[in-house]
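Milestone M4 deliverable, item 7.
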Amino acid sequence: MGITLRSTMDLIIAQIAIDNNLLLLHNDKDFIEIAHVIPDLRLL
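Output delivered:
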């Protein structure tokens, strides 16, 4: 999709949240970008 993320750790956190069907509380714009591409990521 052409997005660039600043941290590999953000991807790992997002994947754990997706795999465990968790709601991710965040203060990081990278998670919003990930959620646009991967709608399974639930954000609060």
